[in-house]
């Protein structure tokens, strides 16, 4: 790579201007450790190709990245060792200052999914006839039998609380595998839709209530599910404490919700109270609510998903009294 002369103020200004844009910072963080094509970068950044290409041109012009063409695709990569020393120093500062950036973490999760898909594509190519099995199986038998098989692993005697049940889509799936499902939601409109969906099912009970004051007796369920609901709650700690109250000792809580993000426009449009939940804070809340064996992990974003990345939390209610947890 050709080197620009050192010590020129206009070169320094150009470098700093390159790093002054959030999209270009995201691109450089992605390209520092692997080579990626434009389509892959668009997928990770969730941006149109015109936007990504425009920013890549700036980075190419300022020698932050290099491009290599393979077949019909250009691949891009930043190689730190090939940058001029002052540019290396600028980038190290920029990278350090963006290490805690929620957007960067969201990008990393989507990147992991893209790289995993690369591996899957390669395996499919070399698998030959065996690589057609999944497609053939879906064509012949559909996609839902696997979910039904996993749900069948649930103990048949379970009573499950579905907090923030919405229109009862999950409750209906669970109902055929457990003794009873108690769906709780604050919205009359959601409960109306849930009642319509439930139809003739007898083992789903709907209750109107706030997640900070759940209308279920203490120890009244074996497990509690709370999917995409806590970001709508004003007092998340109180809602988690309610989970600990209603679950029997030895019972489980499963939570799926948004990871921290900085898309305030998304939060406002969805009417959410918080922009995601912090892993450390949620762990502390669950512990204070009497839960143990707490596991929290990010979920790989689906290719068609447009919202922020999600996490899954699982915890077991200990046999200790809630007062001791306090």
Structural commentary:
The radius of gyration is 25 Å and the shape is globular. The chain is α/β, with parallel strands linked by helices and 326 residues long. It is built from 14 helices and ten strands. The longest helix has 26 residues, at 102-127. Helix 11 links the parallel strand 7 and strand 8 (247-258). The strands form two sheets. The protein has a seven-stranded mixed sheet with strand order 6-5-4-7-8-10-9, sandwiched between helices. Strands 1-3-2 form a three-stranded antiparallel sheet. Helix 3 (38-45) packs across helix 6 (102-127) and helix 11 packs across helix 13 (279-288). It folds into two domains: 9-127, Arc Repressor Mutant, subunit A; 143-325, Vaccinia Virus protein VP39 (Rossmann fold), CATH 3.40.50.
Biggest sheet, open or closed, and with what strands and sense? 7 strands, mixed
- The neighbouring-strand order within the major sheet is 6-5-4-7-8-10-9
* Count of discrete domains: 2
Helix content: 40-55%
Mean pLDDT: 89
Tell me the CATH architecture of the largest domain: 3-Layer(aba) Sandwich
CATH superfamily of the largest domain: Vaccinia Virus protein VP39
Count the beta strands: 10
Reading off the top of the CATH hierarchy, the class of the largest domain is best stated as Alpha Beta
Structural class: alpha/beta
């Amino acid at each position: 790579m050709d080197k620009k002369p050192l010590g020129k103020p206009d070169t320094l200004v150009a470098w700093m201007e390159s790093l002054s844009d959030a999209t270009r910072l995201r691109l450089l963080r992605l390209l520092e450790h692997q080579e990626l094509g434009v389509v892959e970068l668009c997928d990770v950044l969730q941006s149109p190709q015109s936007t990504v290409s425009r920013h890549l041109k700036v980075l190419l012009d300022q020698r932050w990245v290099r491009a290599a063409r393979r077949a019909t695709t250009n691949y891009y990569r930043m190689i730190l060792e090939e940058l001029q020393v002052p540019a290396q120093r600028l980038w190290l500062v920029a990278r350090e200052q963006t290490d805690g950036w929620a957007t960067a973490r969201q990008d990393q999760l989507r990147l992991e999914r893209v790289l995993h898909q690369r591996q899957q594509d390669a395996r499919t190519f070399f698998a030959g006839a065996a690589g057609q099995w999944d497609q053939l199986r879906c064509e012949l038998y559909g996609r839902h039998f696997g979910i039904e098989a996993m749900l069948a692993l649930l103990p048949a005697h379970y009573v499950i609380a579905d907090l923030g049940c919405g229109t009862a889509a999950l409750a209906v799936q669970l109902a055929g595998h457990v003794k009873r499902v108690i769906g709780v939601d604050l919205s009359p409109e959601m409960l109306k839709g849930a009642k319509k969906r439930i139809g003739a099912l007898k083992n789903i009970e709907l209750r109107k209530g706030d997640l900070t004051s759940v209308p279920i007796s203490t120890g009244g369920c074996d497990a509690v599910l709370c999917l995409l609901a806590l970001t709508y709650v004003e007092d998340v700690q109180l809602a988690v404490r309610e989970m600990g109250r209603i679950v029997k000792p030895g019972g489980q809580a499963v939570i799926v919700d948004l990871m921290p993000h900085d898309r305030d426009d998304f939060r406002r449009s969805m009417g959410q109270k918080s922009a995601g939940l912090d892993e450390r804070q949620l762990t502390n809340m669950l512990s204070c609510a009497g839960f143990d064996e707490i596991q929290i992990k990010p979920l790989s974003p689906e290719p068609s998903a447009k919202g922020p990345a999600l996490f899954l939390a699982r915890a077991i209610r200990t046999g200790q009294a809630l007062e001791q947890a306090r």
